[in-house]
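Subject: for your reference before the review

Hello V.,

The reviewers asked for a structural picture of the protein, and I figured it would be easier to keep everything in one thread rather than splitting it across files. Below is the amino acid sequence we used in the manuscript, unchanged from the supplementary table.
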Amino acid sequence: MHPVRVAAAAVNQTPLDWEGNLARLNDAVERARAAGAAILCLPELSITGYGCEDAFFMPGVARTALEILDALRTRTEGLLVAVGLPILCQGSLYNAAALLADGVLTGLVVKQALAGDGIHYEPRWFKPWPAGVVRHIPILGRSVPIGDLLFDCGGLRVGFEICEDAWVSQRPGTRLARRAVDLILNPSASHFAFGKQRIRERFVLEGSRAFHATYIYANLLGNEAGRALYDGGTLIAAGGRLLAAGSRFGFEKVRVLTATSDVDLTRVARTMSFSAQAALAHRDDAVVPVDFAPPLAPPEPCQEPPSDGMGKEEEFTHALTLGLYDYITKSRSHGVVISLSGGADSGAVAALASLTIENACRALGPQAWAAAGIPPGLPLVEIKRSLLNCVYQSTINSSTVTRDAASSLAEALGARFHLWDVEGFVQDYRRLVESSLGRTLDWNSDDITLQNIQARARAPGVWMLANALGALLLSTSNRSEAAVGYATMDGDTCGGLSPIAGIDKAFLRQWLRWMETTGSPAFPPIPALAAINAQTPTAELRPPDQSQTDEADLMPYPVLDAIERSAIRDKREPAEAFCEMKAKFPEYPPDQLLLWVDRFFRLFCRNQWKRERYAPSFHVDDENLDPRTWCRFPILSGGFEEELRKLAAQTSASCEAPAGSAADPSPSPEAGP
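And here is what came back from the structure prediction:
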């Protein structure tokens, strides 16, 4: 038997927060030591923070990272500790993991597969390290090996896959397995997305089985830099069996998962495997001898850890509340302000803010909101009234239904509720512009103008309230609206953070119903959401006799979201998207679907400038439209005009092309520049 106790840490870091980052790494080291671990894996780039962006180019960042590494080194007596940091080598910057052994820096392994798709831009800052290459560089006064290394720690062979290395077909683990690796450490910064934890579990389990090794996976936790969220999921597996899985999300800054693995079992499995062929000709200088052998641990019974069993709704709630908490406290905001219209979007944002306040207090106790200026000992009801401000701003077109829904929800959430009438401001602006135009504005010729001024008249007051309170103004736009520009810039899009801009309307309404009736032990139901869920979504910007609804202005939200995924996620042209919609929605006539497909493509192209201007949003779905994290598109383009003309011509024989489909895409608020 050769039992070794290993650990993986989830750490909530902040880019360039040198003192705080070091304190949390030291905390993780001490927790691992207290749990009897001999080996600890810390997350990727956790010394600097993963989200430093172009600050990585500053020479002082790499220099300071080495100073922090040296300080951490002194705390690793009796342990093997892996930690991530940027490293300069021969004029290029690399994403590396340092292995500290009993107070000594033994070497640095460099990431070979850089994450350059979607939310990730690593190739902008780092160079990929070629497989099989080893160099020596001066670090902290001595020559240190760097590159594609394997460490022999008193007979225990330790190798690395750094985050993306494990997601590609040519995994470094394959070569490590041929060199008889015993443990593979994976320091990661893997952003949260729906269902992604199951993918991580698969490659960790399969890596441990195929490579005949113990696999230790560490990840970041929380809202590190503003947009990306990290669930802190840690995993330890051996020989294809999951030994331990850390709980995800949570408001604590440091969490350490430990397990005991019998290395002899994976060695025996390798010996018995016909396919496990040794790399006998591999160069010797790629194996770094380490004068430290991790001590053996008492053997433990192996029990398969249970899955956390989270559905999409609960994952979403955990991710958004953690993201909000970190954003509010790291920005030192004194709470939030929400323009609560009584509709689904603002109701969801208000509910999430309330849940954030409750769960942080429950998890962290009296000091939970110290960064927001809340003194310890204040009861929850007072904390909520201090941190959560909701404002209903009525015009002549607002209804008692939405006003009452906003009022009852704010009361149920414990928010401070403000009722404002902004109709006077709307009329003042109207008279001002009419005097300049020399004519009267009317709904027949100035529909968009008269809708948008109501939304814009609501912005200055809530901004002023947020400024006076030192609070964060939350925007309430969702992803479906962002896709087609169904939002008023400097109106309902105003705010410093847009928490739900990455979430489609169909799921948001599903989540609201779940939150009203079901919830979970961590997030009890909020029955007051019934007043929100009973309504048909409407902007309430036209006169009541026009019976305005979102879906009448645009199209049914399920259809909109399906066209968006076809066009944006799957990169289908209009004709292909139309064929897909005909198969997916046979209940609608082809001419109606043609109109909606035409409308979507035109509005998407015309409104890229809006998506460029949205407040920062949380990335929770790897089908995002945020041009700064996922989907880049030109602000000015041909707008698929030729493709849409061909589509209309191709379908004219089988279905009559709707009148105006090429010239009148939608009467949606501010549909274009």
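For the response letter, the relevant points are probably these. Residues 655-669 have pLDDT under 50 and may be disordered. The longest strand covers residues 80-89.

Happy to draft the paragraph if you're swamped.

O.
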